[in-house]
Specification:
Length: about 180
C-alpha cells in the first residue's frame, strides 16, 4: 500500500510540475509539437483564465463544507494558518528535491531502464517523503489534539463508514500534507 502511495505521489508531483511549467509558459504543446493557446482564455480585463478554474472553486467549496460540517472555530483556523506558514519551507524544499528525483527517474524510464527508475523512486523519493512527514507531524499534532470531542466523533463516524479507524499520527501526517499544498 505504501508503495502505491509513494508512486501515486510521485506521479502527482510529476504531473503538477509539467502542468505548472505549461501554465507558466502560457501555452501547451499540441500534437505534432505545435504550440496552442487553447487552455488559456482572457477575461474582460485581459487577465489569463484557464478552463480548469472550476476545479479550484470546487476544492474551495469542499474545504468550506468540511469546515462547516466539523464546526471548525476561528481559533482553530488561525492555528491552522500559522502551522501552514511553518510548513511552507518544508514543503517547498521537499517539492524541489522530489521534482529532481522524479526527473531523474523519468530520464531513466525514457532511456528504457524501468527498473532503475523504480529503484530511484524507491530509494530516494520514499526517504525524502518520510523525512518530510517526520518534520511535519510535530507541527500538525497540536491541531489534531485541539479537535473537540464532537469534531473527533464526526471524523471517527466518517472513517467507520469507510471501514477505517482514527489514528492521530496518520491524521497529523495527512493534515500536514493538506496544509502544505499551494493554494
Amino acid at each position: 500500500m505504501k508503495k502505491h502511495i509513494v508512486f501515486a505521489l510521485a506521479a502527482l508531483v510529476l504531473a503538477g510540475s509539467t502542468a505548472l511549467a505549461a501554465v507558466q509558459e502560457g501555452r501547451r504543446e499540441a500534437p505534432g509539437g505545435q504550440r496552442s493557446e487553447q487552455g488559456a482564455r482572457r477575461d474582460r480585463d485581459g487577465a489569463r483564465r484557464h478552463k480548469h478554474g472550476r476545479r479550484d472553486q470546487r476544492s474551495r467549496q469542499r474545504r468550506e463544507r468540511v469546515r462547516e460540517h466539523l464546526g471548525i472555530t476561528e481559533d482553530q483556523r488561525a492555528a491552522g494558518r500559522d502551522v501552514a506558514r511553518q510548513l511552507a519551507p518544508i514543503a517547498d524544499e521537499t517539492r524541489a528535491k522530489a521534482r529532481e528525483i522524479v526527473e531523474r527517474a523519468r530520464a531513466l524510464r525514457d532511456a528504457g531502464d524501468r527498473e532503475g527508475a523504480k529503484a530511484v523512486l524507491r530509494d530516494e523519493l520514499r526517504p525524502l517523503l518520510q523525512g518530510a512527514r517526520e518534520r511535519m507531524v510535530p507541527l500538525t499534532r497540536p491541531l489534531v489534539e485541539s479537535l473537540t470531542p464532537e469534531q473527533r466523533g464526526k471524523i471517527e463516524r466518517l472513517l467507520e463508514r469507510r471501514g477505517r479507524s482514527f489514528d492521530e499520527d496518520r491524521a497529523a501526517a495527512r493534515l500536514g500534507w493538506r496544509l502544505s499544498r499551494r493554494r
